[in-house]
Amino acid sequence: MTGSRRDRIVTEIVRSVSPEMDSRRLSAMCAEVTGASGAGIVLMTNDAPWRSLNSSNQVSASLNALQISLLEGPAVEAHNSGVPVHEPDLGDPTNPRWPAFSEPAIEAGVRAVFGFPLRVGGVRLGALDLHSRRPGLLKNEQHLDALILADVVARAILLVEAEARPAQLAAELRTSSDYQSIVNQASGMAAVQMGVSVGAALVRMRTYSFGVGRAFSEVADDIVARRLRFDPELN
User: Fold this and answer.
1) What is the rounded CA–CA span in Å between residue 59 and residue 132?
2) Of 2, 29, 89, 101, which is most buried, counting CB atoms within 10 Å of its CB?
3) Phi–psi pair at 114, nearest 5 degrees
């Protein structure tokens, strides 16, 4: 069931960013797949200032802006903790935790918010946040969809940054994520070799794999086996 669910979500993501490869449409697709009132994607990396990649509507855009300026909210907490964050009722929370964020969010018509970390291996990219105008937890189906979305969206963001062509994007996203451990090791080694962050190394590895027409997992295997090395001047 999970496999077919992931296949469906990958198909939706590939459709949303092809052929123009516009990652800004990802958030609208996330809202549609989960049935949320809105969705936003916030990029939070060490390589650049935090920013809103995009949002599905004006309310989501406001939530993203609030979290970036206040440094609190579901996306910020999900990114920092590395685990999903759920607040089913901002108006009557069991554990109040975002004093500055909650009031303006409620004023914007939001009652429930959810954050899901965006990660590729050991690289933290930010978070996907969903909101609902009604209080209540996500249904099990929505939660499962959101977890898969967060995983696939994170990979899609890196692929778009590496300027993958539509066919490459589809092939890479449909590849199983079971090789995460080898990707972690390879990106760490490449980062040391190039003297850059792990996130930058991951993008460079992706770009290289597209350029030589090889699967990303094969490139990662070669780096770990020391058959391939990235020199600083190649970055």
Assistant:
1) 10
2) 101
3) -145, 140
The partner residues of 101 in beta bridges, in order of sequence, read none
The structure tokens listed for 42 are: 């916030």
CB contact at 8 A, 43 and 189 = no
The rounded distance, in Å, linking the Cα atoms of 201 and 121 is 12
Cα(66)–Cα(100) distance, integer angstroms: 9
CB 189 within 8 A of CB 199: no
- Domains of the chain listed by start with CATH number: 2-163 (3.30.450.40), 175-234 (1.10.10)
The closest alpha carbon to 33, from 7, 65, 59, 67, belongs to: 7
Closest by CA to 76, choosing from 26, 121, 40, 34, is 40
Identify the bridge partners of residue 130 per DSSP, sorted by sequence position.
39, 114
Q: At what angle do helices 140-161 and 166-174 cross, to 10 degrees?
A: 130
Question: Which residue is associated with the tokens 């929370």?
Answer: 93
| Beta bridge mates, 132 | 112
Q: What is the rounded distance in angstroms from the CA atom of residue 44 to the CA atom of residue 46? A: 7
Over residues 179-231, the pLDDT tens digits come to 566 777 888 888 889 888 777 788 788 788 878 878 777 888 899 889 999 98
